[in-house]
Write a structure and sequence with these properties.
- It comes from Piscinibacter gummiphilus.
- This is Chromosome partitioning protein.
- InterPro entries: AAA_dom, DNA_Partitioning_ATPase, P-loop_NTPase.
- The chain has an eight-stranded mixed β-sheet with strand order 3-4-2-5-1-6-7-8, sandwiched between helices.
- The longest helix is centred in the middle third of the chain and has 20 residues.
- A hairpin with a 4-residue loop joins strand 3 and strand 4.
- It is an alpha/beta fold.
- Bound molecules: adenosine-5'-diphosphate and magnesium ion.
Length: 261
C-alpha cells in the first residue's frame, strides 16, 4: 500500500480534482484505492458520490480513535473506490487533538490497520499547513503537488517544499516530494509555458510528464457528485487523468531515489 498526500497550501489549485480523478483513474486500471478526505469542506467526499451530511462516521472519528477506518469508510460503487469522508465536524479536530498524545500520528496508526486492503491511499489535504495536513504528511510516503503554472505558484512552492523537508527530517523519514502536477494548463498562454519551463529547470524529473488541461467537464463533474473520469470518460480532462494514473503506477514501481525530498 502506497500513501500519497495531495497538498498545496493554496486553495482552488486543483487538489480535490486531482484526488478524485486520480483515484477514479487508478480504480479503472484495477488498483484498490482509498481516499481520505482531510478537508472539513468535504469536497472530495461529495465529489465521490458520498453525501457528507449523511455520514454516521467520518475521518474525525478515526483521528479521535473512536472508530477504525474499516468502520468509518464508505464504498462508492459508481466511482469504484472507498472514501473515508469528512464534513464540517472535522474543523473541530484541530482543537480536540491539541492536548492529545501522538496528535500528528493518528491517521498513520489507523492506516496501518488497512495496509493489506488497498494499493493506493490518496489524502486530500486542506489548504493550510495545519495539524490536519501534518497528520497527512506524517502518514504518507509521498506528496503530490498540483499547481497552476502562474507566477505566484512558484512563490508558494518553496514554503511547501520546506515543510516537506522538515517533516522528512523530524517526523516521517519516508516522506518524499513525489512530484509536481501541472493542472488547468492552457498551452496557448505564454506565461503558463514559461512557468512550466521554469518548473522543469528547477525540479527536473519531479515534474510529472502528464499535464492536466483546463477542461470544462472536469469542472462540471463535482455538481453531479462524480469525478470527471467517471462523469465523462472520453473528455480530454478524463483521458489526462487516466494517463496520470498510469504514470503514478509506473513511478511507484521504480525504486525510491537515494536523495530524499
Ligand atoms: P482545491 O481542492 O485545491 O481547492 P479544486 O480541485 O476544488 O481545488 O479546484 C478548484 C476549482 O477549479 C473547482 O471549481 C474545479 O472544478 C476547478 N478545476 C480544477 N481542475 C480543473 C481543470 N483541469 N479544468 C477546469 N477546471 C478545473
Ligand atoms: Mg479541495
Amino acid at each position: 500500500m502506497r500513501i500519497f498526500c495531495v497538498a498545496n497550501q493554496k486553495g482552488g489549485v486543483g487538489k480535490t480534482t486531482t484526488t478524485v480523478n486520480l483515484a477514479a483513474g487508478l480504480a479503472k486500471i484495477g488498483q484498490r484505492v482509498l481516499i481520505v478526505d482531510l478537508d472539513p469542506q468535504g469536497n472530495a467526499t461529495m465529489g465521490s458520490g458520498v453525501d457528507k451530511r449523511a455520514l454516521p462516521l467520518t475521518v474525525y472519528d478515526v483521528l479521535l480513535e473512536s472508530a477504525s477506518i474499516a468502520e468509518a469508510k464508505q464504498h462508492s460503487e459508481q466511482v469504484g473506490y472507498d472514501v473515508l469522508g469528512a464534513n464540517r465536524e472535522l474543523a473541530g479536530a484541530e482543537v480536540d487533538l491539541v492536548g492529545l498524545e501522538r496528535r500528528d500520528r493518528r491517521l498513520k496508526g489507523a492506516l496501518e490497520a488497512v495496509s493489506d486492503q488497498y494499493d493506493f491511499v490518496l489524502i486530500d489535504c486542506p489548504p493550510s499547513l495545519s495539524l490536519l495536513t501534518l497528520n497527512g504528511l506524517c502518514s504518507a510516503h509521498g506528496v503530490l503537488v498540483p499547481m497552476q503554472c502562474e507566477y505566484f505558484a512558484l512563490e508558494g512552492l518553496s514554503d511547501l517544499v520546506n515543510t516537506i523537508k522538515q517533516v522528512h527530517a523530524n517526523l516521517n523519514p519516508d516522506l518524499q516530494l513525489i512530484g509536481l502536477l501541472r493542472v488547468m494548463f492552457d498551452p496557448r498562454i505564454t506565461l503558463q509555458q514559461q512557468v512550466s519551463d521554469q518548473l522543469k529547470t528547477h525540479f527536473a524529473d519531479k515534474v510529472f510528464n502528464t499535464v492536466i488541461p483546463r477542461n470544462v467537464r472536469l469542472a462540471e463533474a463535482p455538481s453531479y457528485g462524480l469525478p470527471g473520469v467517471v462523469f465523462d470518460p472520453a473528455s480530454k480532462g478524463a483521458l489526462a487523468f487516466i494517463d496520470f494514473a498510469r504514470e503514478m503506477v509506473e513511478r511507484v514501481q521504480q525504486p525510491a531515489p537515494a536523495v530524499p525530498a
